[in-house]
């Protein structure tokens, strides 16, 4: 019984944090991540540039960041739940040191194809990455100054049985 109360209290705190930022986050889906953690994706309908989107996700609460889609499992969650969000959403991609190579914002790993189409860079100034979800899904490069929706992610420990 004590474990249940603790989990409920943690959940309630997360709800309060989300409400305090005036966020309108919509749950997209979740999956088990490595190291006994669960990764949950949320979309927000407000439009912001890349920097403001990244900052928004961080302000939602502890453990929230702009989303990364680094595995086939992560991509599958987005594809299977495309009815919950649509359009272009910022994700944690930026232009790397090599021309035309996108890397995850907090790491140096390059982005793999993950069985999803890449739309070509629209011009040489496109330096941030986004995920487009509708009937078709793809990653795309865009000017960081443009305003789009964002996908945030949250990592939390798996509940103990």
UniProtKB/TrEMBL annotation:
Pfam families, alphabetized: Lectin_C (PF00059)
Segment forming the signal sequence: 1-23
InterPro entries named among the record's database cross-references: C-type_lectin-like (IPR001304), C-type_lectin-like/link_sf (IPR016186), CTDL_fold (IPR016187)
PROSITE patterns on file: C_TYPE_LECTIN_2
Record's keyword annotation contains Transferase: no
Domain C-type lectin: from-to ranges: 36-153
Keywords noted in UniProt: Signal
Name of the protein this chain belongs to: C-type lectin domain-containing protein
Organism of derivation: Orchesella cincta (Springtail)
